[in-house]
C-alpha cells in the first residue's frame, strides 16, 4: 500500500512514516519545513519528502493520504484530496486501526515529561526482553529512532492531548485505547485550541474513560488538577507516584531512595538530573511493573538509559563554554530544565529562549516566563517577528540579566560576547531556532581566534 503523509516532518507523523515503512508499505510525504532530528531520520529510512504542499505530489494518487494536524483547509494538497475524493485519514486513526489493534498499549500523557517518560518506559521493556513497539515525540538515544513496529504485543506511545486533525478535533490520545496509562501532570497549555484548563481536563477524562477495568492508571499523586480529572470518574486500578504508599523517591547520596508500597529498595543511581526526572522515572517504573518487569530489572534499566535527543543534549563546546539544546517551551519546563542543569556542576547558566510554540507566541505564558528564568545567570530572548506580546516588557523584572533581540545575528553576537570560561549556554526552543546552536559555537570559536590575533581582546 502507498501512504502519502501530509505534514510528514512533525515528530508524530515522522514516527507514523517509520512504522508504516517497517510494516512494508511504500511511504512518501510532503511538508513545508524540515529540520533534524526528524528530517535526518526520514532520509536515513529512504522516505521521500517533498517540499511544500503541491497537488502534483499526489499524482499518481496514493492508496491513502494520512493527514497531520498541521494541515488546514486551504492547504493546496488537502484541497486536491477533497476535490478528487481521495481516501484520507488522520495519523492517530491510521495507527489505531493498523498497529494498535490487539496490542497492550502503554500510553504516557501529561503536560510535561511525556517524551522522556515514554522513551524510558520503552527502554525498560526492551531491557527486560519484551521487545516493544513504540512511537515517541523525539529520538531516544538507546534506540536511535523515534518509532518502530516492535516484535511483541507491547506498544509504548507518547499520548498527546493536542487535536487529531482539522476534521477530528478530539485529542490524539483518545484513539489509542491504552491498557496502561501514565498521567504525569496537568497544566494549562495549547492556548490555540483550548480556551481554559477545564477543557483540557475534559479531554483527560475522556482518555481515562478508554482504559479498561483491568487496566492501570499511573497517576502523579501530588497533582491537584489530575485529582479533579479522576474525581470525574475512574474505572481502573489507580497506582500513584509521589504519594505515601505508592511509588516514592527521596534524594540520597549517589541518587535517590526508591520505596514501593512502603518497601525500601535502596538507593537508585539515575543518569537523569532533576526532581522532574525522578517523577518521570517513577511513572515509568510503575507502568513497567504493570506488565511484570521486576524492580531490580527496572533499576538496572534506568542506569543504562540514555535520554532523548534535545533533552539537555550537549551540542558542543568552544572556548571553555558548553552549549546545550533542550525542547523546553513552557514556563514549568523551562524552570525545571534550568534547575536540573544547575545541579549538575558549577558554572554560570546563560539561558537562550525562543518563544516559538503557538501558546508562547500568543503570550498566554508571558507573565510566568520571568519566574521560570529566575535561576539563570543571564537570559537571552529571541523576540520573533510573530510574537503577539512585548518580550522586553514582560521580562523586565529580570533586570540587567535580560537581553532581548529581534534578529538572530545580534542574539548570537551578544551571547558570544557575554560568555566566559566554564559557562553553560542552555538553548530552549521547540523548533530548530534557525540553527542558533551551531552559530553560537562558531561565534565562540571566531571570538577566540580574534583574541589570539589581538591580545588586547583577550
UniProtKB/TrEMBL annotation:
Record-annotated Mur ligase central domain positions: 108-288
Binding site for ATP: 110-116
Catalytic EC class: ligase
InterPro entries for the chain: Mpl, Mur-like_cat_sf, Mur_ligase_C, Mur_ligase_C_dom_sf, Mur_ligase_cen, Mur_ligase_N, MurCDEF_pg_biosynth
Pathway(s) it belongs to: Cell wall biogenesis; peptidoglycan recycling
Gene Ontology MF terms: ATP binding; UDP-N-acetylmuramate-L-alanyl-gamma-D-glutamyl-meso-2,6-diaminoheptanedioate ligase activity
HAMAP family referenced in this protein's UniProt entry, alphabetically: Mpl (MF_02020)
UniProt similarity note: Belongs to the MurCDEF family. Mpl subfamily.
NCBIfam families listed in its UniProt record: mpl (TIGR01081)
PANTHER family assigned: UDP-N-ACETYLMURAMATE--L-ALANINE LIGASE-RELATED, UDP-N-ACETYLMURAMATE--L-ALANYL-GAMMA-D-GLUTAMYL-MESO-2,6-DIAMINOHEPTANDIOATE LIGASE
Function of the molecule: Reutilizes the intact tripeptide L-alanyl-gamma-D-glutamyl-meso-diaminopimelate by linking it to UDP-N-acetylmuramate.
Protein's name according to its UniProt entry: UDP-N-acetylmuramate--L-alanyl-gamma-D-glutamyl-meso-2,6-diaminoheptandioate ligase
The organism of origin for this protein: Sinimarinibacterium flocculans
